[in-house]
Each structure stands twice: as structure tokens, then as C-alpha cells.
Amino acid sequence: MDGDFLQSFTRMVAESARQRLDSWGAAELAGSISLERPAASDHGDLSLNLAMAAAAKAHRSPRELAVELLSDLQDDPDLSRACRTM
Fold it and tell me: Which of 5, 9, 14, 58 can pair with 24 through a Cys bridge, CB separation 3.0 to 4.6 Å?
């Protein structure tokens, strides 16, 4: 996965996540999204910092937020298409 693709994919995730972040009271986090390769390969291909970053502001558990965010991202047709090309 090259750097240009990762930057483009990160922008797509940020755009897709904006509405959810706003509903959590954490809209300002859209500009600080970080997609990275996890240290342990058994943790997946990429990790996203949003649920952890928004948990305190939303007064909810990161896991609960991650489930909501994952559902939103999976429903985004552009992200789904991009994931299939990885």
C-alpha cells in the first residue's frame, strides 16, 4: 500500500466519518484522523484512532463508538470500492 493511496483513503474516511463525529460532539477530530499499520499484524491491515480519540468527548466507550463508526464506513460505497482495490 503506497503513501498516496493511504493519504487518499484517509481523506475518504474523514469525509465519511464527519457526520458521525458531529453526532458525538467531536466534529473537530475530522481533521486529525490517523490511519496506521498496527504494530501486530493480527490486528488487521490498518488501525484508526477515531473511537479512542472521541470517547471522552462522547462520554461513551471506545468500543461502542468503533462499532457505530465501522457500520457507517461499511455503508459508504466509495470506501467499500476502495477497500476492494487494496
Answer: 58
| pTM assigned to the model | 0.75
Q: Where are the domains of the chain?
A: 3-85
* Residue 7 contacts residue 15 (beta carbons within 8 Å): no
How many residues make up the chain in this entry?
Answer: 86
Assigned C-alpha cell, 72: 457507517
- The DSSP-derived string for 3-64 is HHHHHHHHHHHHHHHHHHHHHTT-GGGGGG--EE--SSGGG-S-EE-HHHHHHHHHTS-HHH
pLDDT tens, residue by residue, 22-67 = 999 998 988 888 888 888 989 888 888 889 999 999 999 999 999 9
Contact 50, 35 (CB under 8 A): no
